[in-house]
């Protein structure tokens, strides 16, 4: 179980990003977080990853408090951030070379087998020795996905990893991620601005308020798996998108009303 318990965070410049944000993710679940820009979604992921410490509250994974980066939590960002002087294979194995807290030692033969398995899993067979400048944006994100999974983490965090991709590539990659995480049983938390993407991937969609971010609502997604983008035309899919959108617009509308003058000149 991944638990973010009453997380609040204020940056040194005084910006309050999160206020009393709580999240519980059962093992193997996929939770998507949606909300307006600047509501603290990415800050929350960085806190869960142990990259920054919250001003208040704590994160626990299976009872263990997370206070620093751990090999038990993989992270995939919007920018693939591949090292340009390393091949696909070398970029994927980087986390194993760096080690880190709770890192499990991997024998060289096992390492090679694991890298080969992941390259096959993300559909990059034949590109093992390619360099980042030889890859498309979608291919680079496939490398980033494999790199995030190389330590076999029980939890994967996804911070808008498909945001910069074209629509077709984005759909292909979301379907790939859905299949891989379903097969591996990996717990996932994703931040996205796309309501349809959230509904497609998630078991639960958590809606965040404007800054400081807090939980507005939680929409349970009971679409069958495996999922395909043809489901987007289903009435059930459209109804779920509508429920999420309604939760997103409520706080925005309330804020807008609060700013209206009580009397007109």
TrEMBL record:
InterPro entries: AAA+_ATPase, ABC_transporter-like_ATP-bd, ABC_transporter-like_CS, ABC_transporter_ATP-bind, P-loop_NTPase. Keywords: ATP-binding, Nucleotide-binding, Transport. Residues 2-235 form the ABC transporter domain. Gene3D superfamilies: P-loop containing nucleotide triphosphate hydrolases (3.40.50.300). GO terms for molecular function: ATP binding; ATP hydrolysis activity. It comes from Candidatus Thermofonsia Clade 3 bacterium. This is ABC transporter ATP-binding protein. Transmembrane segments: none annotated.
């Amino acid at each position: 179980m991944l638990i973010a318990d009453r997380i609040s965070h204020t940056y040194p410049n005084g910006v309050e990003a999160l206020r009393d944000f709580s999240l519980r993710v059962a093992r193997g679940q996929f939770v998507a977080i949606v909300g307006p820009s600047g509501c603290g979604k990415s800050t929350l992921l960085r806190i869960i990853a142990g990259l920054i410490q919250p001003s208040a509250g704590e994160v626990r994974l299976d009872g263990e408090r997370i206070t620093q980066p751990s090999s038990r939590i993989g992270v995939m960002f919007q920018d693939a951030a591949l090292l340009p002087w390393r091949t696909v294979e070398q970029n994927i194995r980087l986390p194993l070379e760096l080690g880190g807290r709770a890192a499990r030692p991997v024998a060289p033969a096992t390492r090679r087998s694991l890298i080969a398995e992941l390259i096959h899993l993300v559909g990059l067979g034949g590109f093992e020795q390619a360099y980042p400048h030889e890859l498309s944006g979608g291919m680079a994100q496939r490398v980033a996905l494999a790199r995030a999974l190389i330590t076999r983490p029980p939890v994967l965090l996804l911070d808008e990893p498909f945001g910069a991709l074209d629509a077709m590539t984005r759909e292909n990659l979301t379907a790939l991620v859905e299949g891989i995480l379903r097969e591996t049983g990996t717990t996932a938390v994703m931040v996205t601005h796309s309501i349809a993407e959230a509904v497609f991937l998630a078991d639960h969609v958590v809606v965040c308020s404007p800054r400081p971010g807090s939980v507005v609502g939680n929409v349970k997604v009971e679409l069958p798996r495996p999922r395909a983008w043809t489901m987007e035309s289903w009435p059930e899919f459209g109804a779920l998108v509508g429920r999420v959108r309604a939760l997103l617009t409520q706080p925005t509308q309330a804020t807008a009303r609060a700013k209206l003058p009580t009397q007109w000149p």
